[in-house]
Amino acid sequence: MTTPSHQSDQIIRAARQSLSVQRAGGRRLAPQGAVRIRRGHLGRKLRNIALAVGGIWLGLTAIGWILSGIGLGGLALGALATGFAVWAFGKYPEMKMPSLSDLNPAQADVKTMVGRTELWLESQRRALPPPAVKLVDTIGLQLDVLGDQLIHVDQNHPKAMEVRKLVGEHLPGLIDGYQKIPEHLRYEDNPGGSPNTRFLDGLSTISGEIDSLTRQLAAGAIDNLAISTRYLDYKYGEALHDSEKAL
């Protein structure tokens, strides 16, 4: 059963998501971990195109130097080969969307796994009900923050291991389990609530846990900042106060 406090947490998270969307001009913010993976794939395609086109024209130049020119036929052949290279390397290799097995917590570093999970979540949006899509979008944005924090965390740190289990196992397992339930059974009431309600509650729980992990990982930096500001205030604040008195 959904408690009032649980509902309020969902409302707060939805409000934060809405604010983020409004700041983006009304557009849905794509998780940056997934964006980075897509950009990396595009970058490799552009590199392959540049190498192929460069190789084509370098080869034609060498042939022209040996034969004292390649003529219009050679230029036409070069243009045709360039067009084919751009098409072929622009289309292939196609980007492989992560599968459940690719999200295995033991197969990659934590940050890479978080990025893969974001990409996998994007591929699942169409198969989810609208309330779940909003929660998944919120989780994706939360994973962005968590992924950036994990850069500075040792892979064997207990919190890193906890993230592995949550993001690489529990979250995708929850979504995969929901999708295996036939559509007409998802809204049937059961003693513990309908599968749809349980699914939304599960996503909310995971969202709250990611927020908790983010706060725990940030706790040390927050404490260090507080110590630094207190030290600066102690060291320079009194001196500034005394100089103001002298004036």
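Next protein, fold it too.
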Amino acid sequence: MSNHRADRPHGSGRPRRPSGPGYARDDRTGRAPRSGRPPSDPARQAAYEAIAAVHRDDAYANLVLSDILRSMGLSGRDAAFATELTYGTLRALGTLDLIVADAAGRDVARIDPPARDALRLGAYQLLYTRVPAHAAVNQTVDLVRSVAPGAAGFANAVMRAITEQHSLDEWLEKLAPPYEEDPVGNLSVMHNHPQWIIRSFAEALGGDLDDTARLLIEDNQPPVVHLCARPGRADAVELADEVDGVPGAFSPYAVYLNGGSPRELAAIHDGRAHVQDEGSQLVAAALLAAEVEGRDTRWLDLCAGPGGKAGLLGSIAALRGAEVTAVEVAEHRARLVEQATEGMPVTVLPMDGRSVGRDPDLPEESFDRVLVDAPCTGLGSLRRRPESRWRRTPADLPPLTRLQRELLVAALRAVRPGGVVAYVTCSPHMVETQVTVTEGARRSGVEVDFVDARPLLPPGMPGLGAGPTVQLWPHRHGTDAMFLAMLRRTA
């Protein structure tokens, strides 16, 4: 057995909804009928509801869990426990499915969804937490009895079969292929990532599987909430004192929270700060640190929703006498940008960013600085969106990379000669980073030079590579895995 272990798993496809005796459900909704019994533990019930919504409705865990906790009136330790169970189960989903399938003697796709999600939650408690085994078993059986009444006996048998292996280490010993024979398969089971994602990480890390393992381990740690102290409205050191946090390691605007919900902070409500990963702050600030020739008053945020980077750019624009045009194709996200930039010199346009440079209102060579925070797979933020690792597939890449190239081409049309474009993705996948930048620049039809992005970041940042592009990493920088390429239009 290799020593490459740490936190969690291997992937699974979306389970089918089987039929058969013992798996009762409401045929009108596809959901298991409730027995009418109140949940024995509200925190576990909240976690179950969130996990079920993620798999049933393609919901986002952070959004749906927040709503569930609020509707159930949970706070403090109950809310923290529900959050741990939800995020932990979603991170560990691949390995949990292997374990549940082995204990059940059938693939998880053949287990009715309500019972399956409850068993995943129960298995997580047994193997990844300090919840006593008898409590995990009893509470899971009670939960299954309330959401899938005909499957309570089955759930009891599965949970007791899981306990027979005694520990997570024993299950991993049984299910993970030997590292020497199948390193990617081993890392997948040990660290809870689909194999295709591990391969993409390893490629971006130069084939170093030891470094890849360190990244996977970090991906499974609960992330710290980062705030952005908006320049001209708040100072990061003073804000850190106010919220009982600490100033960030690299961004001059970053504050790390020590706990609690940022929704309750006065600085968020009065517009002095917003929630934003430090890596996102760094790449937005890098755009404004690059030299431009001549005028420096017209800036463009080409994919502005939901407004974090636009809020930072708008704050700095107010100090520099510049104006920001924020483009967002989705109307509801455009409204979020408007809310995030209220009182700033920011104009929000609900339009397709690919038309910029051809639109008569936004003609070619209009802007001095352009930010392209392109839609991507989000593989760089798996710490914050644990369900994404199991939801994304390689089939997502072709349409996304085509869109990324088209947006970069539009940005290079929109920037004037002497101006700069920052291409950013929250993904380290080489196809979304190096390949897209190279192809987009080639297809743009304009002359560009690559600017070395490393000097545009704070001095002393480790592990920035050979340039001219920069890839940030959770295990090296404590940020999301943000990619940055800086290009200057020369003619």
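About the second fold: The CA atoms of residues 284 and 313 lie 7 Å apart.
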